[in-house]
Specification:
It contains seven helices and 22 strands. The protein has 434 residues and is mainly beta. The chain starts with a strand and ends in a 19-residue tail after the last helix.
Length: 434
């Protein structure tokens, strides 16, 4: 087969991104969504420094680089020998620089966090009190971008640009709820995690950072993707924004666009069960609302969640949010929880048509919150099963010899609604969102 993948690591500022790929000995990227919380993204890159070029104040080529003021981009170009697709795997900032020297080899290790991770340290506006806006994306936008008049955007590094701002985009149809944002001066991540995302429940994660010369809205634009109820990807792509569904199939014997399975784990998601929910947001103008799923409680006991600062503004909206919490996750499910797939196996086993599936898997926009059919034969069984899963996290390890992707799953039936004729979301009696 002719599928291959080539990595690129760029670090720098607008108009001056430096390619460090030739120095890279290995890299690791870990990204995971959070249920009703901002997803997390981290990366570690190890670079060769035997020539001392990276040694701070050593007189080498990069000795005066201010590493903590740089934008980091990790890209991968996937090809089938004829066509290719370059995707962004990680975008963020350097948080730690370590140089090690054992007398034979000198290595530099850079640790990065994504741009959502920065929001845990970013204070917000505190002088307005309450502000009501529409929809989860509208509420997150108000926290991050302000209103263009009274409320300023949260401050963030510009990486050589002129007007850096966050911009969230929805990948789902989204609810029409009104949200009352409490501008209490706490960090942006705390406001989003406490007031907004739990009122879905909804999901959001950091993706790419583009400058205006690259077609962005701001200079630069820091993109977030948001999944709001109803939770399925239903919108179309728009420019570089990959909102449309890109389902995957993983199997032991791949054909067409399918990807292989090198190893797989399955298990119950009992810790995720919730069957009683209270949504309390009296500051937002509604009374506390509680839903108890008695059928589930009779089986598993009370597994409760409380949203203390919900920003929804009516009793009806609060009750609907509580009901979703108590019904979406009301029973443990046994299904695939993680699998690994290696580039070397894709090269050996897959048709050329699978190159785009690999690109979609590596892309930070489509490699999370897409459904997957995981086909395998359980130990002790002669019959293959297909688990309907949702890609909820991934860990990517790349070295000069191979690339390994570990995909984490949650049961699609808990996080997506019924879709007629879908092999993943169209199974009757297995989807509580139908």
């Amino acid at each position: 087969m002719t599928i291959d993948a080539t990595w690129q690591i760029e670090i720098g500022v607008k108009g001056a991104m430096t390619d460090y790929t030739s120095r890279v000995a290995g890299l690791n990227v870990k990204q995971r969504l959070g249920r009703a919380r901002l997803g997390t993204g981290n990366a570690v890159v190890t670079m060769l420094n035997n020539d001392g070029a990276l040694t701070p104040n050593g007189g080498g080529t990069y000795s005066t680089v201010d590493w903590f003021a740089q934008l980091v981009r990790i890209n991968c170009t996937v090809t089938d020998g004829t066509s290719s697709d370059t995707v962004e795997v990680f975008s963020g900032i350097v948080k730690d620089f370590k140089l090690s020297d054992d007398g034979t080899n000198s290595m530099v290790q850079l640790k990065m966090i994504d741009m959502a991770g920065v929001l845990g340290q970013t204070e917000t506006y505190t002088s307005l009190g309450y502000d009501t806006v529409g929809g989860i994306v509208g509420a997150i936008t108000r926290v991050l971008r302000g209103d263009g008049a009274t409320i300023p955007p949260v401050p963030t590094a510009s990486f050589g640009g002129t007007d850096s701002k966050y911009r969230p985009f929805t990948i789902t149809a989204g609810s029409a709820y009104s949200y009352r944002v409490n501008h209490d001066g706490t960090t942006a991540a705390q406001q989003i995690n406490d007031q907004i995302l739990p009122s879905g429940p909804a999901f959001a994660w950091s993706t790419t950072t583009f400058f205006n010369t690259e077609g962005a809205f701001d200079d630069p634009t820091i993109y977030l993707l948001v999944a709001d109820y109803p939770l399925n990807r239903t919108l179309a792509d728009s420019g570089t924004l990959k909102r449309a569904a890109r389902p995957q199939t993983f199997t032991a014997n791949p054909t067409g666009t399918e990807l292989p399975i090198n190893s797989l784990t399955a298990g119950w998601n009992h810790d995720d069960v919730r069957n009683q929910a209270t949504v309390d947001g009296t500051y937002a103008g509604h009374t506390s609302q509680t839903t108890s799923n008695t059928a589930s409680i009779d089986k598993y006991g009370v597994q409760a969640v409380t949203v203390n600062e919900s920003g929804v503004t009516t009793d009806t909206e609060a009750l609907e949010a509580a009901t979703r919490w108590a019904t979406l996750f009301d029973a443990p499910t046994y299904a695939a929880t993680a699998l690994t797939v290696k580039l070397s196996s894709i090269i050996d086993q897959c048709d050329d048509a699978a190159y785009e599936s690999l690109a979609n898997l590596l892309d930070i926009q489509s490699g999370l919150w897409n459904v997957a059919a995981v086909e395998y034969t359980p130990t002790g069984s002669a019959t293959q099963v297909t688990d309907g899963c949702l890609m909820f996290g991934r860990s990517i390890n790349a070295t000069p010899s191979d690339t390994t992707v570990t995909v984490e799953f949650v049961p699609a039936a808990n996080y997506q609604y019924f879709q007629l004729n879908s092999p993943v979301l169209g199974v009757l009696d297995q989807n509580r969102l139908g």
